[in-house]
Write a structure and sequence with these properties.
Length: 317
């Protein structure tokens, strides 16, 4: 049951949750934290309508265990949203949040990749969603074949998939970048097979991969299905945690290796890969070269001066 917001911040909380839903972002974590914040303010700061430093710190300090950091992150985002709307709010300084180095992406070898897609091909349907056995092989192949972010493949509309010329259109990707991408003919054949069955089951659907509720699938759904495929594949977790995002990482590294083996000029090709993947900076694309040290060394590729620049940041979502 959803919490009924009652504090002086009730209206702003409802607005930020509605905004995130419209933008296609997950809201569960925010709703839980802001519901707790609403209860706290209703009891301790009943008549307050301005998010002050006193309120922000009081709520964070009231947390148990390690919950203070979660609260701080949530209240900082909430304050930033209020400021963007022209309201007064105290934003906790970024210096309060310790820098966490991102975990290196999981790069699958050929065997792991084959086992994963074999598992996806044998994913069972169920009574609630009989289309699963068609959706799962298609959604992960589209993501991998085009190097998409998980949210991009989830939100694909049926009109974004052009079966006539084997392209897909990414609308308002990260950094508001639209882009049209060619897709492998074999993958498009799988999409056509799925689309034919899906259209008979749900005529005139909006989303290409549409849930039985009529909405796009959620982040949690995609992660759960990916995890089930990974377990079915038998790949295990000895090399670390895996999530749907590794398909995007693997697309990038596989593309770079193919170009290297073909003798292409990587410096000249990086802008194309960067545009294809929707990166805002070339450094985010160059990052993937650092994931290939062993294979590059065997090819004596690293002897080329300046081909691997120092990169200190890369894109996670």
């Amino acid at each position: 049951m959803k919490h009924e917001f009652q504090s002086g911040f009730a209206c702003q909380i409802k607005n930020i949750l509605a905004h995130r839903e419209v933008m296609g972002h997950p809201v569960t974590w925010y709703r839980q934290n802001l519901a707790n914040f609403d209860r706290f303010c209703y009891e301790r700061f009943t008549n307050d309508t301005i998010l002050t430093k006193e309120i922000a710190f009081a709520w964070c300090n009231d947390a148990k265990g390690n919950g203070g950091m979660n609260r701080a992150c949530a209240i900082r985002k909430f304050a930033q949203y209020m400021l963007a709307g022209g309201e007064v709010a105290y934003v906790m300084p970024a210096a309060f949040f310790p820098y966490q180095r991102a975990r290196p992406p999981y790069i699958m070898n050929d065997s792991e990749l084959a086992k994963f897609f074999n598992a996806a091909d044998h994913f069972p349907g169920n009574k609630i969603n009989p289309l699963l056995e068609f959706i799962v092989p298609a959604i992960f192949r589209v993501q991998y074949a085009c190097g998409l972010r998980p949210q991009e493949v989830r939100r694909l509309r049926r009109t974004d998939v052009s079966q006539g010329d084997n392209t897909i259109y990414i609308v308002e990707g990260k950094h508001n970048k639209d882009r049209r991408l060619p897709i492998n003919a074999h993958v498009m054949d799988i999409c056509k097979k799925y689309d034919k069955v899906a259209e008979m089951h749900t005529p005139n659907r909006v989303y290409f991969f549409q849930s039985y509720t009529g909405d796009a699938y959620t982040t949690q759904w995609l992660e759960n299905i990916f995890s089930k495929c990974w377990r079915m594949s038998g790949n295990g977790t000895l090399r670390g945690y895996c999530s749907p995002y590794i398909l995007r990482h693997n697309y990038a590294t596989q593309t770079l290796m193919r170009w290297i083996e073909e003798g292409k000029n990587i410096d000249a090709m990086i802008p194309y890969l960067s545009a294809y993947m929707g990166h805002s900076k070339f450094s985010a694309t160059y990052y993937y070269i650092h994931l290939l040290p062993e294979r590059l060394a065997r090819m004596d590729f690293t002897s080329l001066d300046g081909i691997i620049p120092e990169v200190h940041d890369y894109e996670e979502d």
